[in-house]
Amino acid sequence: MPDAMLATMSQSAELPALNWSELGLSELLPTGTVTLLLADVEGSTRLWETQPETMTAALALLNRTVAEVVTAHDGVRPLEQGEGDSFVAAFARASDAVACALTLQRAPLTPIRLRIGIHTGEIQLRDESNYAGPTINRAARLRDLAHGGQTVLSGAAEAMVADHLPDGAWLADLGTHALRDLPRPERVLQLCHSDIRNDFPPLRTTNDAGNGHLPIQLTNFVGRASQIVDVRQLLKENRLVTLTGAGGVGKTRLAVQVAAGVATEFTGGVWFIDLAPVTNPLVVPVVLARTLGLADQPGRSTMETVCRFVRDLKMLLILDNCEHLLDACADLVVALLDAGHDVTILATSREPIGVVGELTWRVPSLSVDDEAVALFIDRARRTRPDFALKADNSSVIAEICRRLDGMPLAIELAAARTRTLSLTQMVDGLHHSFRLLAGGARTAVRRQQTLRASIDWSHGMLTDPERILFRRLAVFMGGFDLDAAHAVGADADVEHFQLIDLLGLLVDKSLVVAEEIQNVMRYRMLETVRQYGLEKLAESGEAEAVRTRHRDHYTGVATELAARIRGDGTPLVPWAELEMDNLRAAHAWSCDAGDFDPALRLVSSLQRLWVTRGRFREGVAGFDAVFSDDRYRDVDVATDVWVRAVADAELLAVWFSTPNNLPRAQEALGAARQRDDQRLVVHILLTCAVLAMNYAELAEPYFAEAAELARAADDLAALYHLRAYQCFVGNVVGDPIAAQAAGEEGRALANELGDSFMSRYSRVFLGGALVLQGKLAEALRVSRELVEEARAAQDLPMETFGLMTLAQALTFTGDATAGRAAAQAALENGAAMGGFHEDTAYLALAIAELASGNITAAKQACDAAWGCTSPLKELFVRSFVPMAEATMGCGDLVTARRWADDTVAAVPGSHQVTALTARAGVAVAQGESQQAERDLHDALEIADRTGGYLHLPDALERLAALVADSNPEHAARLFGAAEGMRQRHGEIRFKAFQASYDSALSKVREALEQHDFDGAWSEGNALSTGEAISYAQRGRGTRGRPASGWESLTPTELDVVRLVREGLSNKDIGARLFISPRTVQTHLTHVYAKLGVTSRVQLVQEAGRR
Length: 1106
Description:
It is built from 54 helices and 16 strands. By secondary structure, it is of the alpha/beta class. The chain has eight domains: 3-203, Alpha-Beta Plaits, CATH 3.30.70; 209-362, P-loop containing nucleotide triphosphate hydrolases (Rossmann fold); 371-461, no CATH class; 462-541, Winged helix-like DNA-binding domain superfamily/Winged helix DNA-binding domain (Arc Repressor Mutant, subunit A, Orthogonal Bundle), CATH 1.10.10; 544-637, no CATH class; 783-881; 887-1040, no CATH class; 1046-1105, Arc Repressor Mutant, subunit A, CATH 1.10.10.10. A seven-stranded mixed beta sheet has the order 2-3-1-4-7-9-8, with helices on both faces. Strands 11-12-13-10-14 form a five-stranded parallel beta sheet, with helices on both faces. Helix 42 (883-889) packs antiparallel against helix 43, helix 44 (911-925) packs parallel to helix 46 (952-962) and helix 51 (1051-1061) packs across helix 54.
């Protein structure tokens, strides 16, 4: 049947769609968190070609079946979504999508067999009648994995339906797989049922699992068929196989070829890690982390981050060129193999790595009679397309290959000369230069000398200017551009006008490789050739001068680009990512030479790269390499360079570890003041403020002075950095009003100057400040915009932070299901980055579970949040995680009270509202109503003072419950006031608290006449937030805190007394309570006066008698 007729028949039988535009489709398509079902017909083109009449009827039946089944399961089909015989259906409930898929797979649709993919996520509308964005793209890639008759689900969908599957159905875990063109792998599950087929071939992941992470090969792989079989068998039997052999023997190429052939056996993917450019052993795990797409993790080393990522994956790692980093590689492979029991490592090295369990396999040369000849012919044809093996040249080619001992790199270099030399001339050259090749079998050392002889021969054919440029270019790591070649390679011996021609000649002679990257021509040397060039550079006596020129070029360019950086990080960040190996080499050369000034300038100039690309730990390591060097104190470093380096290093450290270098920052501040450089002073003031972030009274003066100087200098960039960090610190110390003001100003200034990253950073904590104030509608808007913008910019860290804030805002406004989904999406994103800020995502999930009444799940999420936090974030996590209430809900009042007491003693500012309200709930359960009442009144007072109104309705309702028996009219007003506040703020009551609320409210209703209750309720409901707090506090006046005695002590004073009894000093008490020692002494003075004691000893004695 003609193709045109087939196409016409297929189009005429496409699945029909209702005219949704006439029905108001924008109101019918589900939005928010949606489950999508995407399906198509397996082998539809073949079926049309072989069974056209049958397919016409079968497709008509499919049309009717899909329309009926989707409608029956409350699904919607978007207008014109899907092409040909594919279709899309959307469901508000994931369980409906799974039930629909099962019904479709059960339906008698022969010869049609459907491939179905199901994924749940936040959806975007392209227009009124179609979906677009990451969720539908991921669903489509899932469908592409399936076979006909098979239904696959994503991990996100599985989480929604695991407890709501159709009768008789179950899910089979198919592992984690890469999805074509998408940035992170996906956990895939298969829907199974006894009524449908359940046994299928492996998922269609051949191209994705392997080649997506392997280097692209531009030349044919020749020979080694039996060796590929051998190495593949070794990988099945051993978890660490090291391919050894001389440089140039083909270890890397063989490893890549083997990996491509076994890719489908590793569901976690096959990953290639090139260690050749790495000079610092500490960077080895960093390179692996970057290859796997992992960001730095707060409180964890890079090695820990990598090990956590691989522990549940079946994956193959190719560690290439290990010989110069044997100790670091040994540590890495031991850690990886111990962490992930399904991890297999294929390494290449000139020497064994030397760890237990390693199997070494020496890569031989190519067989000279066939494989070597075939390689020579293949590579020669790339230089001379008409080159062929003939009767009159076969023996000469064989002789060349024998002289080259079957070494692949040497053969490739020789084959490249066929453009300018005859085969006879080539043999003559080998006779003169390769005398070591004569004789019998070669040892490993001789094979290495063979390769050297090959390169020696190529080098010997260069002119003097070519040789000079060749050895100078060997200093580059990972490639270089033409500007860099001029800066490093040109001088009196190689004029600038000569360089481009000389470079072209080196490319022609296969000593330099030219390739276009990001629309710019770049150059590089094969590693073995580069090592040879470095030896020639050392012999020349100009190595130090060339390396210094290399260092000066990259330091200068980095400094220049940093000075004119734009808001999106260009041109610095893209350039630095491309030149990372050269930048590392430049820094290493400075450190090795004890030239610390340029080393620090280089690392500081890359600050934007470290921050925006999540390379915090690598940046700090660059600074530490200088600061920890014993020679550092004896070397003169310009004051401005040192001050900026201290500031940059400490700010980077804040992102992942507890800051502990405030004294050094203060010393740098003093040095900056002496230089009278206001911009520098502002920068180090900001650093000091951030380092003091857990102590509001210490941080504020630094922020205030920095802001005043920045405004005076009209330094708007410094000002929005200040405001963004001030917003962050405001969240930490519980000052949401100041945090909001700083966040809004920082966002506005960043937007004005076009700095999209800092704008997003400001909004992360602006959203948090709005949540703390109970401004939930605004928090929803800010966090939604942040997530969308970060997603569009492929800014996964800021998207993840935004999802965490969005999860809380959604939960508190009554959509706990969506809040849970957002928290789980944040966890999913974090997992893709190796566990990025899991603690914050888990606490958001805990809040959503508590709001849903899932006490056990809430407790589990609380434990997960606390278990994975870092020392820097312990105070932050304790301020938010609902551990006390979840623990109380699980029946463990003792542990709940201990957590609540510690939290009240630790958390600052408005976080006390949450902490005291939670402790009051526990105290009520323990029968301590006076403690509960005191805590709730203190919570109201703090909320009024700080503007932290989140949880204030809970505090009013719990206070009302306490007086329900003694003063029901007062309780009714408090209940009404709480409800009015919920209506204004949009803050719902968690299901976990609903039963106790209903019980107390019923008690009040029973105690009052209906009109009395309604009147009191209405009066309370009409109160503003401030009036409600004042009214509740007036009720305290009848039993207000006395002037002396234990009942006169404030909660903070009671905490000070408790810690004095434990034997802590003022300094230690201040550290526990996050206040200064002077503030501790002030509290003690008040305590002494109220209790009539004069010393710590008397205080301890008095407390013991209480």
